[in-house]
């Protein structure tokens, strides 16, 4: 005689097995679709990158391309002023954005009271991270160029890009701090540590890899930005270098370079692309390869540092 309860249990088990099989199939299909989408993006990027290398390799192998100034003749045109300009602009960007962004994130995550005002700040920071870069260029044009009268200079460009990556640094730092288990904080408090000791000796230490990753990714974004730099009036042709930041006489520092005219790698590439001559397009391709390589190196360095720091941390 059949047992109705056993039959009911077997029927439920069959339904559970079918549901599990269906969900596994859906997961498998989704993973295949995701992999195909990833491969399309990677293959497209790799194809474009290889095309740039093929087009610009004659210049990439030329030392004079890195040591000569731009010229109206494509054969003798170089990237020296753009390389130096990008380096100095990134220096100002780092100094203006990273300390402020990291400290703001630490305050919001560890010290700020949880109320409507801190929620409002968090929402606005997240929204600012998605604002188009041209908006920051227009803001900088009105604030730094016209109101503060900083002119179309390196300090203006650095502060503009600093504003651009500031929300990115804040968001990345907060996410890194949130990933630290609450048990670490509780253990530190249990042995008598103060709030600052917990934050400095434990939270920042364990989240430093993620913070560094966010900073480098933000800098990698800034180095390839063109729209805000064009908006504030970066030069498209510059055949001189800014004054050196370091001097041989006391106090060994020179700040005249902050108010100097400048150009950067994306602007120089844009200038060469606007020329009708095919020889200038070869220069532009070589400049594009350099920009992509710098970005990939910075992102690779961030991934490597994060992996190394997480591996060395003893929880």
Please describe what this structure looks like.
With 315 residues, this protein is an all-alpha fold. The protein is built from 11 helices and no strands. It has helices spanning 4-60, 64-67, 80-111, 116-128, 133-147, 154-178, 182-190, 195-223, 227-231, 265-273, 278-312. Helix 3 crosses helix 10 (265-273) and helix 4 crosses helix 6. The chain folds into 2 domains: 1-61; 66-312, MetI-like fold (Orthogonal Bundle), CATH 1.10.3720.10. It is 74% helix and 0% strand.
Number of helical elements: 11
* First-to-last CA distance: 60 Å
Largest sheet: none
- The CATH homologous superfamily of the largest domain corresponds to MetI-like
Tally of discrete structural domains: 2
> Helix and strand succession?
HHHHHHHHHHH
Strand content: under 5%
Q: How many E-type strands?
A: 0
- Using only C-alpha atoms, the radius of gyration works out to 26 Å
What's the CATH architecture name of the largest domain?
Orthogonal Bundle
Mean pLDDT comes to: 84
What is the SS-derived class? mainly alpha
CATH topology-level name of the largest domain: MetI-like fold
Pfam family, one: BPD_transp_1
Protein name: Phosphate transport system permease protein PstA
GO cellular component, one term: plasma membrane
Membrane topology: Multi-pass membrane protein
């Amino acid at each position: 005689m059949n047992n109705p309860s056993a039959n009911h249990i077997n029927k439920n088990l069959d339904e559970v097995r079918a549901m599990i099989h269906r969900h596994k199939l859906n997961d498998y299909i989704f993973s295949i679709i995701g992999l195909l989408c990833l491969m399309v993006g990677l293959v497209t990027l790799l194809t474009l990158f290889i095309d740039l290398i093929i087009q610009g390799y004659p210049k990439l192998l030329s030392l004079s391309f890195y040591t000569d100034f731009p010229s109206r003749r494509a054969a003798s045109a170089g990237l020296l002023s753009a390389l130096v300009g990008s380096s100095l602009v990134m220096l100002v960007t780092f100094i203006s954005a990273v300390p402020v962004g990291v400290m703001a994130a630490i305050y919001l995550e560890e010290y700020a009271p949880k109320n409507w005002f801190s929620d409002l700040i968090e929402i606005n920071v997240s929204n600012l991270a998605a604002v188009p870069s041209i908006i920051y260029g227009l803001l900088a044009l009105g604030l730094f160029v016209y109101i503060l009268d900083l002119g179309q200079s390196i300090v203006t460009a650095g502060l503009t890009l600093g504003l651009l990556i500031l929300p990115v640094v804040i968001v990345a730092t907060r996410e890194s701090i949130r990933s630290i288990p609450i048990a670490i904080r509780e253990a530190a408090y249990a042995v008598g540590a103060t709030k600052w000791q917990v934050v400095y000796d434990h939270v920042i230490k364990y989240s430093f890899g993620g913070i560094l990753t966010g900073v480098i990714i933000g800098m990698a974004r800034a180095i390839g930005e063109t729209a805000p730099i064009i908006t504030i009036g970066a030069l498209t042709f510059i055949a001189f270098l800014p004054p050196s930041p370091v001097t041989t006489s006391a106090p060994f520092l020179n700040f005249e370079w902050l108010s100097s005219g400048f150009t950067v790698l994306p602007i120089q590439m844009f200038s060469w692309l606007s020329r009708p001559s095919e020889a200038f397009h070869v220069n532009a391709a070589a400049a594009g390869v350099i920009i992509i390589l710098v970005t990939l190196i910075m992102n690779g360095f961030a991934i490597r540092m994060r992996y190394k720091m997480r591996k060395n941390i003893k929880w």
